[in-house]
Specification:
Layout lengths: L1 H15 L2 H21 L14 H6 L3 H4 L7 H19 L5 H24 L14 H14 L4 E4 L3 E4 H15 L5 H39 L1 H17 L6 H11 L2
Helix pairs in contact: 2-5, 5-7, 6-7, 6-9, 7-8, 7-9, 8-9, 9-10
Length: 260
């Protein structure tokens, strides 16, 4: 009975999980399963990695997605999931739940495309035909969208202080560009593909939203000028100083308005 109830509880939690929890859970699950199966010789990462070899790519078409959910080692998994957790948690407060999943999958697909394109355009920089593995491109898409949506939002990095999201994104862009000539160019081109996915989705989703916001703001202004001014002031404060700078009353006001 205890086992049955525990199973129902776990299943219930899985059903209630959001996109961020699902993505992190899938990456952890596939990593553990792959380690176990590799130990028994039942599995090969080449089955799920994205290869530049045409024959391998055609025989494993699913690798265009699966590469983004498997990792070569624990260190890569740890840092990818850490970044996904931080940026995904921030984004979940300001965007629809499905946005994180959309960004991640788009980043994986675009990262894979950039990986293959770079190999065909710049074959001379590839020393070996190393296949692509890891969630970095998907994570990069989430990071890019979050930083563009809330450029002045600040997070605290232990021992270093507070940093704005846009500055963190710029650091990652420069780091990836500088690393391309030094080794593993395919992986860094995939990161740039994730960056492109986040940028494109931001442009496509935010600009129409701004147009709708202007129309809605005009209507709200006619009906409730003072209320709209309070919301505008709160949004301006977030843009300048980050969400943490809001008072509890301002957070409550923003929450009430978001539910209308």
């Amino acid at each position: 009975m205890m086992n049955y109830q525990s199973g129902k509880s776990i299943l219930s939690k899985v059903k209630q999980a959001g996109s961020l929890e699902i993505l992190i859970g899938l990456n952890l699950f596939f990593f553990l399963i792959a380690r176990i199966f590799l130990a028994f010789g039942w599995f090969s990462l080449s089955w799920v990695a994205l290869s530049v070899q045409t024959a391998q790519l055609l025989s494993h078409p699913w690798s265009f997605i699966t590469y983004g959910f498997f990792h070569q080692g624990f260190i890569a998994l740890f840092f990818n999931m850490l970044l996904l957790f931080y940026f995904g948690s921030i984004l979940s407060d300001f965007a629809p739940e499905k946005k994180i999943m959309q960004l991640y999958l788009a980043g994986v697909l675009t990262g894979g495309f950039f990986f293959l394109l770079s190999y065909n355009l710049f074959p001379g920089i590839y020393i070996i035909d190393s296949p692509l593995l890891g969630a970095s491109a998907g994570v990069m898409a989430v990071m890019t969208y979050s930083a563009l949506l809330m450029p002045h939002y600040q997070i605290k990095i232990r021992f270093l202080g507070f940093f704005k999201l846009i500055h963190i994104l710029i650091f990652f862009i420069i780091f990836n560009l500088l690393q391309i000539p030094l080794g593993n160019p395919g992986g860094y081109f995939a990161h740039l593909g994730g960056l492109a996915a986040g940028l494109i989705i931001y442009i496509l989703s935010v600009q129409p939203a701004n147009s709708l916001k202007k129309s809605a703001t005009k209507d709200i202004f006619q009906r409730n000028t003072s209320g709209q001014k309070r919301i505008d002031a709160i949004l301006d404060k977030i843009n300048r100083s980050g969400y943490e700078s809001l008072t509890q009353a301002e957070k409550d006001e923003l929450f009430r308005q978001s539910k209308k």
